[in-house]
Design a protein that fits this description.
The structure is a single chain. The chain has four helices and 14 strands. β13 and β14 form a beta hairpin. Helix content is 34%, strand content 33%. The longest helix is centred in the last third of the chain and has 35 residues. It is of the alpha+beta class and 236 residues long. The radius of gyration is 24 Å and the shape is globular. The termini are far apart.
């Protein structure tokens, strides 16, 4: 009987330790999620081809950001199909980052010292450590609460940490209304003092101007085609 009791106690203890070990690596997210099959995980990771970057990539406009409990800042940016997440300290010094393939919108969130990347169209939450090793993959449920979390946290233009307010904005005067991403990340302390942590205004402004010109030329081309088709129809 004593041996059975000892064996039972050891089993319960080992089960508790294992559960604690698993939970320590479980993803902490504001989304409600479901499990992802091993096959789906393998295919997804193979498609995004995420890798760690020691050197800072070329700075691009901000599409998403988050601030960790340690004051580290993760900034998401895009260049064609390549997406980047760059990690900076509180003064804006680059520490490390990730590059991955992605042809959809994405968001970022800190989970302790790890980072969760949210893939919008795929509805996937992917947890990575600072070395770029995947820890967990989950499917984000399509719910009203999750839609609210997308809008009010993941893609929020403002985050607060330790009394400091972090805000992403544009500083391109009238061109601000045409920008789909952001050129600056500004930290505002409790006294109202502002510090620019990240700024790509000089490079972003010409890109925005070119994008506006391209759109205007496309509109002119479409109108021209419609007018010509109208004249042809009248001639017939």
């Amino acid at each position: 009987m004593k041996l059975k009791k000892i064996a039972l106690i050891l089993f319960v203890v080992s089960l508790t330790v294992c559960n604690g070990f698993i939970n320590a690596f479980a993803m902490n997210t504001g989304f409600s999620t479901n499990k992802m099959s091993a096959e789906e995980q393998q295919v997804f990771l193979s498609n995004i081809k995420l890798s760690r970057m020691s050197d800072e990539p070329q700075k691009n406009a901000i599409v998403c950001f988050d601030v960790s409990n340690n004051g580290l800042i993760a900034i998401g940016s895009a260049s064609l199909d390549n997406k980047y997440i760059s990690v900076y300290d509180s003064s804006g010094e680059y520490l490390y980052g990730y590059v991955f393939n992605c042809n959809q919108s994405f968001g970022v969130q800190w989970d302790g010292t790890n980072i969760i990347i949210y893939f919008v169209r795929s509805d996937v939450a992917a947890l990575f450590d600072s070395n770029g090793t995947n820890i967990e993959l989950r499917i984000i449920e399509d719910t009203t609460e999750n839609n609210s979390y997308w809008n009010h946290y993941v893609f929020s233009k403002e985050k607060t940490f330790d009394g400091n307010r972090y805000t992403i904005k544009n500083n391109m005067s009238l061109l601000n209304v045409f920008a789909s991403s952001y050129s600056q990340l500004i930290k505002t302390d409790s006294n109202g003092n502002e510090t620019i942590i990240y700024d790509v205004t000089k490079t972003q402004m010409p890109k925005t101007v070119l994008a506006i010109i391209a759109v205007l030329l496309f509109i002119v081309l479409v109108i021209n085609v419609i007018i010509r088709q109208g004249f042809k129809a009248k001639g017939q």
